[in-house]
Amino acid sequence: MRKKVVIANWKMNYDFHDTTFFIRNFLKIVFERKINHNKEIILAPSFPFLHISNQILQGTTLNIAAQNIHHKDKGSYTGEVSASMLKSIGIQKVILGHSERREFFFEKKNILLEKMKIALKYNFNIIFCVGESLYERSNNQQFKTVECQLKETVFQCPSNNIKYFYIAYEPIWAIGTGKTATFEQAQTMHEFIRSLFLEKYGESVSNKISILYGGSINDLNAKDLFSQKDIDGGLVGNSSLQIEKFLKIVQS
Ligand code: 13P
Question: Ligand 1: which atom is nearest the Cα of residue 177?
């Protein structure tokens, strides 16, 4: 059985109050309503709130992920945050390759490779994002794009590292647009991604890797998406900012 995973990516939206309010109330509701979610729930707050978030979640089954790390171990990189710093406050997961980092912070293959290397050095779990642009989809290049994104990054790792990864398929045209991929489009891509893992690493790896969908998931479409055989959960942006909506997604 593959792990079912739901991740809240709060991006640059929540301040200290919002972050702690959400986490405390989310836990309270899960407890009061006796919600047996039996999946992995991961919350990704902004850097300044990782420590307090992690402390609040001590002793629960929920986990925290960072939204980014710097690609170097340490040194004169004013304003940056390293993997070892995050490790020192108990953070063990990180999102890498998000299209917003690729687009706004020019993170390309080489930087992503370095980030992956550092993350693996500190035994982080990596939520690695791939996905095509609208132009690429319109020109039927989505499979080529995603294959290339995987080949130049994740597939550079030996098979014993793949257990540290979750893959998130996030078509760029679906992120924050309200235009979700249909469940057929998402399933077809997830099946394709799994077939690439099969080809590269064999059956036991490809059967185990959790492939999440991201891009305008909400409480209404989550069920259809998550019932597809190769969709193992979701990476949720906007809809993870409201407790009740996020809970419904988790319960889907
Ligand atoms: P939305 O759910 O807001 O489309 O964002 C998806 C995303 O980018 C999660 O990482």
Answer: 4
- The model's pLDDT over 118-145, given as tens digits with 9 standing for 90+, comes to 999 999 999 999 999 999 999 999 999 9
CATH number at residue 202: 3.20.20.70
How far apart are alpha carbons 214 and 7 in whole angstroms? 9
In this structure, the residues whose C-beta lies within 6 A of any atom of ligand 1 are 9, 98, 170, 175-176, 214-217, 235-239
* Residue nearest atom 5 in ligand 1 by C-alpha distance: 237
The mean predicted confidence, pLDDT, of the chain is 96
Residues marked active site are found at 98, 170
Strand order in the sheet with 5-9: 63-64, 40-44, 5-9, 233-236, 211-214, 165-169, 125-130, 93-96
Ligand 1 atom at minimum distance from 100 CA: 8
pLDDT of residue 16: 98
CB 166 within 8 A of CB 128: yes
Pairing state between β 125-130 and 93-96: parallel
Q: Which domain holds residue 15?
A: 5-251
Secondary-structure percent of the chain, ordered helix, strand, coil, rounded to 5: 50, 15, 35
Domains: count for the chain: 1
Q: Is the pTM of this model over 0.85?
A: yes
Structure confidence by residue, pLDDT tens digits, 188-213: 999 999 999 999 999 999 999 999 99
Structure confidence by residue, pLDDT tens digits, 39-64: 899 999 999 999 999 999 999 999 99
